[in-house]
Specification:
Number of helices: 5
Number of domains: 1
Pathway: Amino-acid biosynthesis; L-methionine biosynthesis via salvage pathway; L-methionine from S-methyl-5-thio-alpha-D-ribose 1-phosphate: step 2/6
Bound molecules: 5-S-methyl-1-O-phosphono-5-thio-D-ribulose, zinc ion
Catalytic activity: 5-(methylsulfanyl)-D-ribulose 1-phosphate = 5-methylsulfanyl-2,3-dioxopentyl phosphate + H2O
Mean pLDDT: 96
CATH class: Alpha Beta
CATH superfamily: Class II aldolase/adducin N-terminal domain
Pfam families: Aldolase_II
Binding site for Zn(2+): 95, 97
Protein name: Methylthioribulose-1-phosphate dehydratase
Order of helices and strands: HEEEEHEHEEHEEH
CATH topology: L-fuculose-1-phosphate Aldolase
Length: 206
């Protein structure tokens, strides 16, 4: 799989699994193959041992273009397709289920999570001295298509200030123009989540 996006996606999945972000088949990763298609992890596959046969090629309408026998695209492919459609420079999307992302779901208000005004936000493209950045938080509908519809409606109005979004009590999705940028964005969002959780613990003094 030399320089095949699937190689990089499988390596990213092993990395995120090792961090505890993709346990029990949780999460899904994708990368554009060309303007009209993207590779995405097949549904239900263990993320610490992905191989070429664990990826499905889908088009912008979510139709399967190429799939190994017995493999279906991620159940959350519509979310990836929505992001690719709204964010032209997004070429890689990572969706993981970290504990911190889910704890931060409890801190969300009116569909927004206020990120801490940290220096780290510069890495998310926010140069302000005192940044006031809200991450969109989407309801975790049982029907994933509804999550994608909510995201489509939100992004039609305005894209998030930073390249990411939270699905309430589910997980976080981050994206970027390439694998390294998408990983940086995910790491920086997860850093902010860890900060928020630890700040809450300090505040309540447990
Ligand atoms: C461990 S169940 C997690 C799934 O329900 C879903 O949220 C997820 O992230 C993975 O779904 P998948 O269809 O395997 O891509
Ligand atoms: Zn998920």
């Amino acid at each position: 799989m030399q320089d095949d996006p699937r190689t990089h996606l499988a390596a990213a999945a092993r990395d995120f699994y090792a961090r505890g972000w993709m346990l029990g088949t949780a999460g899904n990763l994708s990368a554009r193959s060309d303007t009209d298609t993207f590779w995405i992890t097949a549904s239900g596959r263990p993320k610490d041992r992905l191989a070429a046969g664990d990826f499905v090629l889908v088009d912008r309408q979510g139709q399967v273009v190429q799939a190994p026998p017995g493999r279906q695209p991620s159940a959350e492919a519509a979310i990836h397709e929505t992001i690719y459609r709204h964010v032209p420079d997004a070429r890689v999307i990572f969706h993981v289920h970290s504990i911190e992302a889910n704890l931060c779901g409890h801190f969300a208000r009116q569909g927004r999570l206020r990120l801490p005004p940290l220096e780290m936000l510069k890495g998310l493209g926010v140069p302000d001295a005192e940044p006031q950045v809200d991450l969109p938080v989407f309801a975790n509908h049982l029907n994933v298509a509804r999550i994608a519809e909510d995201m489509d409606r939100e992004f039609t109005g305005a894209l998030p200030r930073v390249p990411g979004a939270l699905i309430h009590l589910h997980g976080v999705t981050a994206w970027g123009p390439d694998f390294l940028a998408a990983r940086h964005h995910l790491e920086l969002l997860e850093y902010c989540f860890r900060y928020l959780v630890q700040a809450k613990i300090l505040a309540i003094g447990v």
